[in-house]
Design goal:
Elements: E1 2-5, H1 10-21, E2 26-29, H2 37-47, E3 51-55, H3 61-70, E4 75-78, H4 86-94, E5 99-102, H5 108-113, E6 118-120, H6 137-140, E7 144-147, H7 155-170, E8 175-178, H8 202-211, E9 214-217, H9 231-237, E10 242-245, H10 248-253, E11 261-263, H11 266-278, H12 280-297, H13 300-313
Parallel strand pairs: 1-2, 1-3, 3-4, 4-5, 5-6, 7-8, 7-9, 9-10, 10-11
């Protein structure tokens, strides 16, 4: 079977695409310069895919929707915007798709009520890309690192900045934060330039996760049993020690002090920070257990197995 991905994001090229290849599927993907009606048509006529696969849909409707109306290639949609843009975007894409994948299991009933076939497919990690990378002197010197943009629209995420990130700064730990808008003047939470280091390419983030003593996690969605930051799986896959905001999904899918550690308050983060920075063996044991757990239960090969079974079921 052949599958063509219409978006070259890291979720695809380092994740879902590898998962399909491990099941023996032939894959190809549309790169950014090809993302146009003409570019997609050319790729379809050259590659002749059995399925098209789109992850996200904010900027891709303009060139994918016209092509779907012209060609009869079955389309799979991964609604990574769920639950935020479920009604305004995901349900619109669902009408164009033979199968909808959602990282938020709470959205499944809505798809079914609207007559769409849907499957819960959370984020994951591919062991061939997300593994423990060799020693890096700079990142290994850090007590903590956080990689992510400073979003101002999610109240629980804004709160988490103050009790996940701030304790490391307030207590003089060596921390670096990467991403956009950490110095945005209108955002509730801002960082001193001493801690904000700008954009970190995805290909370098895996080196950071593999080497920093602690990687910090925050989440935009906190009340879903499955929807969470994709970095949970990526950090654990890299054998990183993950100290993360406590959410429903984190509690539902992982064990505290076994696969990772979570915090719901400033004081709790301080206690975790002090204990695990002083106990290398305890930190390394959790990181290794978390990595093994993700490889066994949350690989893209496993996710794709579920997708293929759903497609076969019709």
């Amino acid at each position: 079977m052949k599958i063509l991905f219409t978006n070259p994001s890291p979720l695809i090229k380092y994740g879902m695409q590898k998962g399909f290849e491990k099941h023996g599927w032939e894959t190809d993907r549309l790169e950014v310069p090809q993302q146009s009606v003409d570019g997609l048509i050319k790729k379809i006529e050259e590659f002749k895919p059995d399925y098209l696969f789109t992850e996200g849909g904010v900027d891709t409707k303009k060139f994918i929707f016209p092509v779907l109306e012209r060609y009869s290639v079955p389309h799979i949609y991964w609604a990574v915007e769920d639950p935020v843009a479920h009604a305004t975007l995901a349900l619109q894409w669902a009408t164009k798709s033979v199968l909808v994948l959602t990282p938020d299991m709470e959205m499944l009933e809505s798809y079914r009520q609207n007559g769409h076939k849907a499957l819960c497919i959370p984020f994951a990690a591919d062991p061939d890309y997300y593994y423990k990378y060799p020693y890096d002197e700079h990142f290994a010197s850090l007590d903590a690192i956080h990689v992510g943009n400073n979003y101002n629209v999610f109240p629980e995420r804004r709160k988490a900045y103050k009790y996940i990130i701030s304790p490391f700064i307030d207590h003089g730990k060596k921390i670096e934060v990467y991403g956009f808008d950490w110095d945005h003047p209108r955002h509730e939470f801002k960082l001193d330039p001493a801690y904000h280091k700008g954009y970190l390419p995805h290909e370098k983030s895996v080196i950071a996760y593999s080497n920093a003593k602690i990687t910090l996690g925050v989440h935009s969605i906190t009340n879903s049993r499955t929807m969470q930051s994709m970095r949970t799986f990526e950090v654990l896959g890299c054998g990183g020690f993950f100290l993360t905001q406590r959410t429903r999904a984190i509690e539902y899918m992982f064990k505290n002090h076994v696969h990772l550690v979570w915090s719901a308050s400033y004081e709790e983060t301080v206690d975790l920070m002090n204990y695990y920075l002083e106990n290398d063996s305890a930190r390394e044991k959790i990181a290794l257990t978390g990595q093994q757990f993700v490889y066994q239960n949350h690989s893209y090969e496993r996710r794709v197995s579920e997708i293929i079974n759903a497609l076969k079921a019709g």
